[in-house]
Amino acid sequence: MTSLIERYRDRLSLEPGDPVVSLEEGSTPLIEASRLSERLGVRAYLKFEGGNPTGSFKDRGMTVAVSRAMGRGAEAVICASTGNTAASAAAYAARAGLRGAVIVPEGKIAIGKLAQALMHGARVIALQGNFDDALTIVRELAQKHPVELVNSVNPHRIEGQKTAAFEVVEELGEAPGALAIPVGNAGNVTAYWRGFQEVGTAPILYGFQAEGAAPLVEGHPVANPETVASAIRIGNPARWEEAMTAFTGSRGRVAAVSDDQILDAYRWLAANEGVFCEPASAASVAGLLAHGLPVAEDTAPPESVVCVLTGHGLKDPDTALGKAPAVVNCDNDLSAVERAVFD
Ligand SMILES: *Cc1c(COP(=O)(O)O)cnc(C)c1O
After folding, report:
1. Same domain flag for 250 and 121
2. Separation of 251 CA from ligand 1 center, angstroms?
3. At residue 44, what are phi and psi to the nearest 5 degrees?
4. How far apart are the first and last CA of the chain?
5. Distance 135 CA to ligand 1 centre (A)
6. Each residue's pLDDT tens digit in the chain (343 positions)?
């Protein structure tokens, strides 16, 4: 294994003297999904970004952003986060020996992500507001104080994240016909589009937002975004324009999925493909199941699609256990176990 920066340094935004702060991120599995392929009528793959060191794609951007921050002599990093950016920033800050502070919406982040940020030694601040409020505040803080803002408004985050598109093309030997992706702050879809374009490809991009947090679909910011998929509970995406450029340029589109559709896809993937992602990640699959793979009039239907599964299911055990079947209690006795297993 090597770091993402070692693999792609000549295509990233680092300066020659920047150190490499890495946890050997990237090189995540691209899993062919035969049951999903059957349901969609097209060859489907899962890009499992839960395989990154802190369990989400945020690590791809964070290795570059924190390496650059070190190169610039920063002493601390700060971010607003729905959870995964906080976990990743905290881990890379710890790795680099920098101080880290993360601002999260109070009571709104998945428990695994909170555990990560705290274990890595970041100062975790629970804001009585939503993600959009937190982002506004950290942007101002970063202008007033010598701290590096590592949200996806940081250009180095997008640079690092575009490497996922490189990996997909390398592994398939060509670009997929289409790529489906959950959209929150819209940094990741921006990054994939840049990555695909840099290697001279242009798959159709299908972006999916949760119904209660779908500003790009509705065409205006959403004041109080609500969805079970906490990682995409964002009402005013920072990369709005770039995301729309990606959808238009790729002849794709952005659409909404309900929380029920998200949770159905989330459970179905775990039970039928053996892949446990977090609820927000399942929006990519839910969207294809709900809307199919529509194409512009003069465009051929895609023959393959990659669904980006942005984060690991273990991040959010509360949602997993919330509607899971009950555990079977059993006496310490062979025949009781026999009945419990086989009846
Ligand atoms: C951050 C995140 C998203 C949304 O990505 P954006 O770049 O904000 O659009 C989706 N899923 C998971 C698991 C995330 O952590």
Report:
1. no
2. 22
3. -120, 140
4. 46
5. 14
6. 589 999 999 999 999 999 999 999 999 999 999 999 999 999 999 999 999 999 999 999 999 999 999 999 999 999 999 999 999 999 999 999 999 999 999 998 999 999 999 999 999 999 999 999 999 999 999 999 999 999 989 999 999 999 999 999 999 999 999 999 999 999 999 999 999 999 999 999 999 999 999 999 999 999 999 999 999 999 999 999 999 999 999 999 999 999 999 999 999 999 999 999 999 999 999 999 999 999 998 889 999 999 999 999 999 999 999 978 889 999 999 999 999 999 8
Domain final residue, candidates 126, 154, 182: 154
The number of folded domains in the chain is: 2
With a 6 Å cutoff on the Cβ, whether 63 touches ligand 1 is no
> What CATH number is given to the structural domain containing 62?
3.40.50.1100
Which residue's CA is the closest to the ligand 1 atom numbered 8?
Answer: 185
Query: What is the DSSP secondary-structure string of 101-165?
Result: EEEEETT-S-HHHHHHHHHTTPEEEEESS-HHHHHHHHHHHHHHSS-EE-STTSHHHHHHHTHHH
Cβ–ligand 1 contact at 84 (below 6 Å)? yes
